[in-house]
């Protein structure tokens, strides 16, 4: 159809041949023959571009790739059809979040309904860069969606020349909008998991592994370095951290005497070893060492000792975190192995979503894919191999106990992930079940039924949660009482000075009144006196005035008589 229209244009309008638009004879506007629209999402807003001669563009894809860099050539193929700017940064963030999740936002829906010709017989084709949002748009509007190929090249050109294609938008404003949206989007992604406590477990187990490697490497370096001076000490002491502490304590072996035997016993925790070290230092075949070299060895061994002490603190921290975040998993399989499972899965929630078959081989992905590639035997266990159960099982029962243990690990992780009050009751019961299964494989004793064990665990959990809730209520009530006591104390403290001021004012007013009454008698008070003074003086005048007429009346009556 498009070739027929183009041929008709070239025949009847020769001067417009080779163009994708025809000027109307009535209004003078150019009628664009648009087959494809391209949606572009920018930090400033949504833009809809009309693409001309889409079939020729598809045939000449290498030339399109070259013409994308030139704005004049790109304008001949693509033109802006509509632009919808975002009202605020919050609106831009909401729209971008919806696009990243593959959801059609209300703003995008309104924009496409307004500017995309959906009512015609032939429905338009829309090109998008993301296939996820394309599927959502196809379901929403029932239109054909294109991704990749020509659309990808056009999107690349639009991204390059966007500030030139949209009127009123400069390159500086576009970059500022992108920067602000990028910051807010990344901030929202970081805040998405702000309450996750298993992040600390993941970082702790990674740091613990790194510390093990570093302590081992540094200890071997101390052994080699100090071994030139005291080579016999390597055979006597095998522990790395103990060797570094001894190298720091002994220093020059020639200065070692009977007086330092007690300090050696404190480090070695064995009197026989301490005596052997003392005897070996007297008959050592090591070379002499300079004081400067000895100082450097002591400093380095001090660093190794401090790293070993920090590793113990970190292990205790990991144990406490596991008891808070995943107590059942820690009780079942141990803190270190449980932390490795959480770290390998990415989070406790991801581990809870895994089936038991995945948990069983978690950590053995290379062996699994190699077995699938070579059509060999798949691995029986991954990280759970480091648990004590598989090591205690016989060779023929290792696969069976690994399946059973993986099943119990998934149950424990799901309980830890979705329980409100963290308790280790279920983990202890699951560990008992694994122990019973091990004894069943060895001796044939039948284990308890899972239903009975879980009923006991539920009863214990209910009792424990009720106690925990009561404690929380008491703590909340105590906090409320403390707050209630603090607020009236603050109010009384603010009211006390005002009450004292009022008392002082009353006392001063009474003194002024007494002075006015004694000095002036029945005279009126001074103008600066207050209302209370005026009222008192008025009462005094009222009491004095009626005495004179009463005495005059009595005198008149006596005269008449």
How does this model look, in words?
- Helices cover 68% and strands 6% of the residues.
- Helix 11 (198-227) packs across helix 13, helix 17 (327-333) crosses helix 18 and helix 17 (327-333) runs parallel beside helix 24 (425-443).
- It has 27 helices and seven strands.
- The chain is extended and about 100 Å long.
- The protein has helices spanning 2-12, 54-59, 61-67, 71-77, 89-100, 106-115, 131-141, 150-160, 162-165, 171-191, 198-227, 232-236, 240-250, 261-268, 271-282, 291-325, 327-333, 335-345, 348-353, 356-360, 365-374, 388-392, 398-418, 425-443, 450-520, 531-544, 547-560, and strands spanning 21-23, 30-32, 34-41, 45-52, 78-85, 125-127, 144-146.
- The protein folds into three domains: 33-191, 2-Layer Sandwich (Nucleotidyltransferase, domain 5), CATH 3.30.420; 200-318, Helix Hairpins (Orthogonal Bundle); 326-465, Orthogonal Bundle (Serum Albumin, Chain A, Domain 1).
- Residues 510-526 have a biased composition (Acidic residues).
- Keywords: Nucleus, Ribosome biogenesis.
- Belongs to the NOP5/NOP56 family.
- Residues 325-443 form the Nop domain.
């Amino acid at each position: 159809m498009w070739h027929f229209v183009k041929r008709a244009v070239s025949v009847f309008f020769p001067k417009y041949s080779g163009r994708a638009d025809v000027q109307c004879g009535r209004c003078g506007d150019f009628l664009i023959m648009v087959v494809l629209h391209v949606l572009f999402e920018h930090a400033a807003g949504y833009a809809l571009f009309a693409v001309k001669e889409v079939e020729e563009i598809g045939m000449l894809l290498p030339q399109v790739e070259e013409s994308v860099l030139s704005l004049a050539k790109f304008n001949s193929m693509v033109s802006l059809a509509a632009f919808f700017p975002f009202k605020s940064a919050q609106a831009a963030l909401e729209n971008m979040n919806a696009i990243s999740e593959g959801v059609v936002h209300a703003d995008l829906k309104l924009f496409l309904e307004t500017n995309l010709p959906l009512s015609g017989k032939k429905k338009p084709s829309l090109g998008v860069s993301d296939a996820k949002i394309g599927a959502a748009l196809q379901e929403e509007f029932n239109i054909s969606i294109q991704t990749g190929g020509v659309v990808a090249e056009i999107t690349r050109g639009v991204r390059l020349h966007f500030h030139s294609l949209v009127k009123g938008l400069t390159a500086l404003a576009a970059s500022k909008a992108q920067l602000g949206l990028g910051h807010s989007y990344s901030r929202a992604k970081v805040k998405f998991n702000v309450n996750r406590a298993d992040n600390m477990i993941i970082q702790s187990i990674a740091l613990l592994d790194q510390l093990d490697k570093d302590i081992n490497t540094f200890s071997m370096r101390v052994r080699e370095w100090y071994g030139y001076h005291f080579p016999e000490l390597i055979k006597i002491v095998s522990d790395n951290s103990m060797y570094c502490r001894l190298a720091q304590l002994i220093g020059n072996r020639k200065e070692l005497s009977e007086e330092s035997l007690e300090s050696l016993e404190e480090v070695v925790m064995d009197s026989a070893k301490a005596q052997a070290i003392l005897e070996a230092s007297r008959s050592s075949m090591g070379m002499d060492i300079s004081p400067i070299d000895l100082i450097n060895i002591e400093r380095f061994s001090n660093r190794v000792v401090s790293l070993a002490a920090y590793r113990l603190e970190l292990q205790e921290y990991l144990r406490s975190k596991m008891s808070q975040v995943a107590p059942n998993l820690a009780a079942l399989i141990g803190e270190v192995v449980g932390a490795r499972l959480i770290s390998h899965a990415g989070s406790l929630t991801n581990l809870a979503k895994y089936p038991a078959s995945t948990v069983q081989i978690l950590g053995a992905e290379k062996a699994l894919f190699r077995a699938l590639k070579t059509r060999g035997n798949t691995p029986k266990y991954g990280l759970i191999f480091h648990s004590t159960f598989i090591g205690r099982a016989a060779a023929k029962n290792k696969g069976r106990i690994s399946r059973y243990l993986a099943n119990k690990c998934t149950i424990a992780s799901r309980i830890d992930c979705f329980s409100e009050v963290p308790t280790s009751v279920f983990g202890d019961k699951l560990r008992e079940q694994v122990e019973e299964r091990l004894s069943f494989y060895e001796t044939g004793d039948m284990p308890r039924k899972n239903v009975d064990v879980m009923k006991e665990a539920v009863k214990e959990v209910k009792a424990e949660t009720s106690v925990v809730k009561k404690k929380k209520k008491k703590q909340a009530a105590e906090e409320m009482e403390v707050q209630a006591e603090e607020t009236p104390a603050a109010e009384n403290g603010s009211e006390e000075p005002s009450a004292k001021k009022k008392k002082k004012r009353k006392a001063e007013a009474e003194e002024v009144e007494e002075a006015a009454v004694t000095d002036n008698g029945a005279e009126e008070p001074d103008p600066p006196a207050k209302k209370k003074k005026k009222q008192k003086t008025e009462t005094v005048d009222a009491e004095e005035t009626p005495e004179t007429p009463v005495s005059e009346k009595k005198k008149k009556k006596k005269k008449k008589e």
